[in-house]
Amino acid sequence: MNVNNEPTTIGLSDGAHTKLQQLKEEHYFAEMADGYRFAIALALAHGASAPAVTGGRGTIFNVGTLDPDRGIYAAVSALREPVDEPVYRTAARLAEWGVEELYRRTRDGRFSFADILSEAESLQG
Amino acid sequence: MKLLDMEMYNFMPYRGKHKVTFPADPARNVMVVFGPNMRGKTSLLNAIRWCFYGEALDRQLNPIDLLKIVNIEAATEGDWEVSVFITFESNGHSYDLRRVAKLRELVDVPRRDDDFEPSLSMRRDGKVLLGDDIEHEINQIMPSQIARFFLFDAELLGQYEALLVDDSEQGQAIKEAIEQVLGVPALIKGRDEIRTLLKKAQAVQAKENKHVEGMASQAEQYARLQAEIDSLSVDVTALKGKDAHLRTEIAGLDDILASTEAAQKAQAQLDGLLAEHKRVSERVTALKEEQLGVLQGAWKDLLQPRLQQRLNELIKERDGSQASIQERGSLVARIDQLKKLLSQSRCSVCGQDIAKARREEFGAQLGKLEGELTAVSADMAKLGEASAEISRISRIRGVGASGALKRIETEQSRSAVEHTRLEGEIGTLRRQVAGHDTAEIARQRTRRDQLMQNLGRIQEDMKRSEKEKDDKVGKQNQLSRLMSKAPTARTQRSAREVEVYGVLEKIFAGGVDTLRDRLREAVAAKATEAFLKLTTEKTYKGLAINDSYGLTIVDRQERPVSVRSAGAEQIVALSLIDGLNRTARKSGPIVMDTPLGRLDPKHRANVLAYVPTMAEQVILLAHEGEINREEDLEPLASRIGAIYDIERISATESRLVREKGGK
Asked: CA nearest B135: which of B121, B148, B149?
């Protein structure tokens, strides 16, 4: 993959953006970037095949700010299905799935980050 | 004194007329009144108190308003009259005493005690006593100060512990009452009267010596001291006035604080819970912050299982590539060898021609090996990629979020439960304190503390002034003795009076100390006698008495037993009361409320066996949980003169029923 083709900003659909903002306001995360990274990891952990994002896509983060040590880049590259698409574009699709999933779970009332981590272990177990 | 009978009218739960006849037979001198809680046992004790002394006391020993003494049902129907009529014998005389309180004219519904018109009447041997004579007669028979040793709530006997505390106000009041019982004040009064006469004689002597040659300076010094003493006396009187004023104010505040005790307790609890709530809230915030901090890196932990799996695949791939790369050297050598063979027509070793079929075989081998060499080159590229990816993945290290989040969430959940509990309790307490001005209560409490401090300072000042005064009186006495010894003074009448009163004062003062010591010894001996019969602990030797009549248990090694239970406290207090009654000049019937509440079965049996000997009449006001009518009274059966039951008519009305039978 040609790194030079990678986008310099990354974001979410309007709907997911609102939900991530709400998660931050409800103190699930200190910053939206924390929630965004967690959402990407959640999608990767679940092996989610995130569909292409429909609807408006707002720019939320500068890639350099979101992924300063390129850990997200490395993880997405290592774990995504082979696809001819910039890595951060895949990351954005995964984030979309992850934010929706997190939002859904937080509405259930019995939400636990520890449970999400345990679940990720059992998925590979 | 022996009680004969008592008739109450509208007294507390006893609506209308109710009569109690006390046991008159000395051989059957015990009366037991059974009644459940809240039915009117203590009211019987209060009826006797009220009739004799005009006051009924609650469980905190505070006077009960007349408004609360009148039976509520009778009052509701407009009958506000209350009375108690007691007949009794004392010192060979028969008495009847009647105390009545009626509404004053023009008062329909009383609002305060002043709306009642109280009256007291007494007859001795059928003759009517008038006005102050009645109170004087009661004081002769049974002064109110000593009634505490005859009419008492056994649950409150713990107050005698105060006698063991130096300078305790309550202890001082009890000590004074004890000395009243024992008759010490009579001797003290005698000593004080002689002291007054001595002072007067000394003053006359000093006045006369002003004109006697050689005595003028002593007389002058005496007069100066007298002026200083007078000034100090004025100071002490003023301080006593302040002391009394402060005590009244403190008592008033105590009453207010006692009436708001429940609200104060609730407020104190509320303050505690609010502090606890704040602490839990701070912990919740700290946990949230910690959780948010952990979540910054938690995405790496979330990926670890999959990354680890990918890492394992890459390591395997890398190892495979490395193995094939290691075979590259031999592959190249074999290719070179085959190429060389194919470039020749004869074998370089045996010199024979290489057969066509053989050459084809070499060609095929060469092609295969060259293919393998190409694959190895690809592996080399793969090895680089795999190594680079391993390196990138290895840098994504978890932050231990799983364990940290589990711990945080467990604690968060616990804190949330705690938070909910606290909020519930806080809500309940807020409702309890609502309507109370807790700030005003706090202000009154602070005011009381300040007044207590002022009282302490005034008492210190009083002590200092009294000491200064005593020192000056001592100097005056010395001067007076000097003046009496002077030859010119010997013929003076005042000098002779000073001499006589001085000797008498010494005799009386010594007498007071001697009497106190002897009485203390007597009380200690008699209390020990009672204690050894009442206690179940055989290793105790007896009781030791202090200057304030406080009693301490002593074991066989003469060591004081400092720790004692509520039961032991009650046994010691009963022993003290018995010791006092046996040493006292005056004695009366013992009316004991809740006598056995704090005692275990063995102590209960001991007390019940002992009570008939405690006084000429013993009246026990008990509930059936304290005294088992069948088992506990059986050994006492021959001493029981009467048994009454208090029966419930309604929540605010009871009646007394005498048990039928020979008693």
From this structure: B121
